[in-house]
Structure formats: structure tokens, C-alpha cells
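Methods: example folding runs. The two proteins below were folded one after another, and each record is reproduced exactly as written to the output file, sequence line first and C-alpha cell line second.
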Amino acid sequence: MKTEDIALFHRIVETGSILEAANLLNLPKSTVSRRLQSLEESLNLKLFHRQSRAITLTSAGSHFYEKTLVMLADLDRTLSDITDNKAELTGHLRILIFPIPQIMDIVSKIFAFMDENPNCSIEIITSTEPLDMVRNNIDIAFMVNETFSELDMVAKPVISEDMCFFASPEYLTKAGMPVTLSDIEQHNSILFRFPNGKTFSEVPLANDAMQAVKGNLCTNSIQLAYEATKLGRGIGYLPQKLCHDDVEQGELVRLFNDLAPYTGVVFLVYPSRRFLSLTGQRLLDYMLAQLPVQTSEKTTTTNTKVWI
């Protein structure tokens, strides 16, 4: 019995399909089926009920899955402890990144990790849509709170960004300068829609306050909201660092300078119940050491109000 075949069995369970597991692992379906059969023969157990279009765990398969989750996690922790960071890292990691303005800061650190560990390969997926990390074989992710699709996540804050209101001089010439914060309700704002379907008709401010906004353009892209704001389509609620040079060059105007910025947070996330490979754990440690904002880990809850 090989630990690689047990890990393969986990991927089949988590995707619910031999074909999906094969696609995620970039293996022929026949290879996955053969390795699963070999595992069942070595255990002398039937792990799945096989039907024409679906497979379901047997009671023995369910028990084996739960027990081996802990076993593989313990094995990887032991390897990590005894190798003392000297083991050669191999394998393939899948990383999901919400397309934030600082995406290249994250990617450059991933590239540096790859340079230090040339025998591992990494797949980077950018998406504003929520993805089930376990089902899609995602090892770690960089996400804002509203994009978490699972409850059993460990999340560590790694990037913070101050959010402010901005508008182009052309828009302000046409629509006028909002003097008080409540004036923004009479202006056209660029609205942002998160993957959970929620459109921010209210945006969060500092000290847990909320401000109503309205507009005729909605997007799920921070970059597109930024470009639309520069083109005078309305007032944008955008990361301050993203707009810094435009403000310096007179292409954007920050509104309400006396209003304290709202701080949005990006989390480094991984599933709490699924074991993380030695390579995945080393990448996790590397990214936490390289990225500035760190606090103790937490399991995400639906009550956390974070927006960026």
C-alpha cells in the first residue's frame, strides 16, 4: 500500500468522481481506476459503491477516509520535523488567488519559492468566483472573506488595504463635488458585486459604519472598477495604493480627505480538515514569513465583516 494511492483515494472522495480526480491530477482515468483497484485489493476492502454515473463511499471506505486523513497529516508533520527543512520539496501545488491589486506581490513571492525549490511545480488560478477548495484540490488560497465557500477554513490575514472614495476630475466637473458623505447618495457610484451575489449598495466605513451608494454600473473586478472611475463613469470605492499615482498626477481626486479609510483584509486560507503536504506546508510558512500582516489563525465564520 502506497501513501500516494491513499492520497489519490482522498482526491476521489473529495471530488466525488474518478474522472474529476483524474482531471485535477492530470492523470489518465485508467491510471486512477487502476491505482484505486490496487488499493482496494491491498486492503481487501471495497471502498466505493460503483454505479453507472456515480460512486459513493461504502461504510468501510468512509471509515478509512476519516482515519487516513489524520494518518497522512501526522506523517507529513513527522517528515517536516525530522528533515529540519532540509528535505527536497517535490510535487504539484494548486494556488487560488482573488485578483487583488497586489496580485503580483503575491506571485513574485511564489516565484521566489519555486526558484528555491526547482523540483516542485505550481498552478496559479485567479478567480473572483468561490471554489470549493477540497473538491477542486486547491492547496492554499488568497481570498477576501466574502469569497470563502467553506466553513472549515483556517485563515491568516496577510495583506491589508485602505479603501477610499475616488473620482476623476471629468466626473466632478460634470456631476459636482460631493461635500458631505451623505451627498454621495445623489451621485453615480461604481458598484461591486461579490461572488456570493451580494451587490454593495452599502459600503463599509471605519468604526463599523455603513454608507449607502447607488449607480448604473456594477462589476466583480476591482481593476475594472478602477478603470471605470478613471474614465469618469462614477465614484469608485478603491484601494488607496492602487490610486496613489493617479492622485499625484491629477487623474483622480480622493474625496472626503477627513474620512478615516476603511481597512480591507486579504487572507491566506487552507482547509482545516484536509492534510497539507510537506511542500504545501513549506510554501505556507514561506508566504507567512514574506507577507507583512500576521495574527493568530482562526476558523472563518459568517459574522466576520471584511471587504476589499
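Second run, written to the same file directly after the first:
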Amino acid sequence: MELKGFQGTKVSLISLGLAVLIFLIKIFAYLITKSVAIYSDAMESTINIFSALTAFIGLKIALKPPDPEHPYGHTKIEYLFSIVEATFIFIASISILWKAFQNLQTPQPPPNLNQGFVLIGITLVLNGFISFIAYLQGKKENSPILIAHAHHIFTDVLTTLGVMIGLFVAKFFNIWILDPLIAMVLGVNILYMGYKITKESINSLLDASLPKEKVDSIKNIISETIKNHPQKEQIHDIHEFKTRRAGRKGFVEFHLTVSETMSIKSAHDICNEIEKNISEKHGDIKVTIHIEPDEKKKP
């Protein structure tokens, strides 16, 4: 886990450096073209800088080991930083929409557009590369902040691609009102992305359950472990099954009803086997099992 965390931090740091470089390239492209669509792309890229910075800081905090004041660790801080990132996205979208509205009434053909195409094309390749790397690492570490960061960078890829296609069409057909219209569409899209990140982060802060496919997998492991256990006749049922996600970690707890004649050691061994089998497939899951004698199930 520490190695994975180190790799995630390294990815976020590389992303930060590239975000600064990409912003400088795009802002230069805007200055030589005066295209409001390219301006929207450059503004979105400023948010990548804040996104990479919050990802780097958030990961450093989230990877701290548990302490007496935080016995379950610090992983939920990732959701807070994801909300901060979404706030930056909202600010960028408002700025883009306002700039597009100002240019909608008097659209002008951007000068030096060919040079602008080359510059933003370079940024598209750079962003596509770091988005892919950040997403793979985020999935590998179950890190919401890295995944959110990767999604955000990918919106920048789509933004740049949309800008290039839109401006090419505008130039080919000499319809320059497309310039601010493209910016408005991209502004709305970025606003929606910020809404999705905020919704998912708040939902997780409220202890949302694990994804259904993971819950089903865990339940199947429990069922198979009990089915293959030599004392399966003395294991009656499981109930009060609950799951929750906290950053890159997941928590599962349930009650296991066993025969009242089963020894404490035998019951403890069953719990250990269940926990071991779950951990082998889902290393990010912490399992807590409460043993109950079957007499508690009687009316």
C-alpha cells in the first residue's frame, strides 16, 4: 500500500508540472488568436493546476497511518479535496460562460489560427497521456482523488478536441459565431462535471455502501467459505450486513449466527478464515464480524 501510495503521489506531482506547462502553452495560444473558445480551454487548464495540487496534498494526508485520534485512518480527506477540486471547476465554468456571452454579440475571426491549432494540439497529447496514467493509478489504489483528477484532465482533453474541431468548422464555413458558442457548450459541460464530482464525494462522505458488484463478490466469498467449512452445520446465518467506503479503503461488518454449542475458538477460526478469503481478493477491505449464538435468534 505504501508503494502504491508513493506511485500515486508521484503521478500527481508529474501532473502538476505538466498542468503548468499546458496552461502556459494554451494561454499563449489565446494571446495570439484572441479566440474565446481557446480562452475557455486555457481557463479549464488553470483548474488542472489546482486539481493536481489538491491531488498531491490530499494524497499525502490520506496516506498517513491511523493514529489515536483517527483510528480508521485519514482516507476520507480525499473526498474533501475532491469537493475542493469541484469548486475550482465551478469557478472555471462561470468564467468561461461569462467570456463567451461577452463575445456572442460581436464574434470576430481569430488571427493566427493555424499557429493556435498547433499549440493546443500539443496540449491535447500531453493531457491525454497524464489522464490515462492518473486513471490507471487511481483505479489501482482505489483513490477517489486520483480518479477525480483523471476525469477532470480528460474533460480538458475533450475540451481541446472540441475547440479544435469547432474552430476548424468555423474557419472552413466562415461562421465565427461558433467560437463563443463552442465556449458556452464547453462551459456547461465543465459545470456538469463539477456537479458529478461533488455529488459522488458528498455521497461517500455520508458513508455510502460499496459498489454492488463488490458487495455481491464479498457475499459470495462468505457463502463459499461457510459452504466448504467442516463445521458448516453449526453456522446458521449472517445478518446485519453493512458496507461503507472511506477513500481508498472499504469496511464490511456483519453478524454471524452459530450454534450455541460451538466453542469460542472454533467460531474465531471461522471468522479468521472468512476475513482471510475476503482480503485475498479485496485487499482494501477491512472486515468486522460479530458472533452470535443461535439462542439470540429464538423468540
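Comment on the second run: The chain has a mean pLDDT of 84.
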